[in-house]
Structure formats: C-alpha cells, structure tokens
Amino acid sequence: MICRETIISASPEDTFQAGKKFAEDLRRNSVTGFFGDLGTGKTQFIKGICDFFKVKEAVNSPTFIIVNEYSGISDSDNSAIKIFHFDFYRLKNMSDLYSIGFENYTDQNGICLIEWAELADEYLQGNLQKIYFEHGQKENERIIKFK
Ligand SMILES: Nc1ncnc2c1ncn2[C@@H]1O[C@H](COP(=O)(O)OP(=O)(O)OP(=O)(O)O)[C@@H](O)[C@H]1O
Ligand SMILES: [Mg+2]
After folding, report:
1. What is the pTM of this model?
2. CA distance readout (Å), 77 to 15, 29, 49, 73, 81
C-alpha cells in the first residue's frame, strides 16, 4: 500500500479490510505506530492485519498487560511470524519503555504494532510507519491516514 494516502472507512469491516490490505506490505522487524483517539478503529485495523497473517488468537487492545503476542504465518514463505501488539496508553515516559523491555521486541524478526505510539516515536526517532485515525462526520465513518 502506498504510504501517503487517506482512506475513508464507512464501517468496521472497511477498516478491517484496510488493515488486511496494509499487511501485504509489512516486513519483518518493522514497527508501525497507530495514533488517534479512543474508538477510532486502531484495534479494528490491527485485527485485519492479524487476519492476513492467519492469527488464531483473539486480537484485543492489550491495555492492561502492555503487549499481546500472536502467532501468525508469513504469506511470502509460509513460515511462522510473531506479531507483537502493544498499547502504550498507560505508559507515561520513555523510562517505562525500558522497564517493559521494549527494545527486545523490535529485532525478533516479528512485526510490532503499537497503539498510542507517541513514546515509540521518540524512542525510535521517527523510524516507524505511522497511521493516524480520526472520527469522520458520520457515526461510523473513520478517516485513516498513512504517513
Ligand atoms: N468505520 C469504522 N472503523 C472502525 N471501527 C468502527 C467504525 N465504525 C464504527 N466502529 C466502531 O468503533 C469502535 C472502534 O474500536 P477500536 O477498539 O478499534 O478503537 P481503538 O482506536 O483501538 O480504541 P482504543 O484507543 O480505545 O484502543 C468499535 O466498536 C467499532 O465497531
Ligand atoms: Mg485499541
């Protein structure tokens, strides 16, 4: 997916499919940050990514335990691939990142997906793909921007 575009999603299913499409281009050791208010569809999009990788576990925001780990299958060569799903909503500063051992996850040949990734942005010094989520005008509309 070309990373400078905007998608208008009209439903949770649209957002799921957008995530699934985005996943086609995700590479091992990549880090993607998901920004935007509560309920804007970050987790829904990540569910689509995980579906692409044939993850069988339930995919939910790991708000209380910081990271969920899923087992996926890479599309390119059918090999196993780990997906690390973070939620930094409750983290307060960069030292929290060290205490959860964040740096141990980014070089595991897996894929890191981070909701509320503001801290990761500072830590990785912009070296992450960013996706921004907003509420649209209509109730089920969401605006998804790739930067
Ligand atoms: N177009 C849409 N795309 C995604 N979700 C939508 C859409 N329309 C309605 N929804 C609803 O909005 C909610 C989005 O929830 P989701 O958990 O994905 O948000 P989130 O951005 O991860 O929030 P949080 O910051 O609390 O983790 C779901 O209840 C979903 O059904
Ligand atoms: Mg979420």
Report:
1. 0.95
2. 26, 16, 17, 8, 10
Whole-number pLDDT of residue 1 = 41
Q: Which domains does the chain have, with CATH numbers?
A: 6-146 (3.40.50.300)
Mutate to test the pocket of ligand 1, among 14, 16, 43 (most ligand atoms within 8 A of CB): 43
Distance (Å) from CA 44 to ligand 2 centroid:
7
**Residue 9 Cβ contacting ligand 1 at under 6 Å:** yes
Does the beta carbon of 140 sit less than 6 angstroms from any atom of ligand 1? yes
117 lines ligand 1 (CB under 6 A): no
What was the pLDDT predicted at 111? 97
| Residue 8: predicted pLDDT | 97
The DSSP secondary structure of 81-109, one letter per residue, reads EEEEEEE-TT--SHHHHHHTTGGGTTTSS
